[in-house]
Amino acid sequence: METSQTAGSSGELSRRLGVFDAVVIGLGSMVGAGIFAALAPAASAAGSGLLLGLALAAVVAYCNATSSARLAARYPQSGGTYVYGRERLGEFWGYLAGWGFVVGKTASCAAMALTVGSYVWPGQAHAVAVAAVVALTAVNYAGVHKSALLTRTIVAVVLAVLAAVVTACLTSDAADAARLEPGADASFGGVVQASGLLFFAFAGYARIATLGEEVRDPRKTIPRAVPLALGTALALYAAVAVCVLLMLGPGRLAHTAAPLVETVRAAGVPGLAPLVRVGAAVAALGSLLSLLLGVSRTTLAMARDRHLPHALAAVHPRLQVPHRAELAVGAVAAVLAATADVRGAIGFSSFGVLAYYAIANAAAWTLTPAEGRPARVVPLLGVVGCLLLAFALPVSSVLAGAALIAAGAAAHGLRKALGRA
Question: pTM to 2 decimals?
Answer without folding.
Answer: 0.83
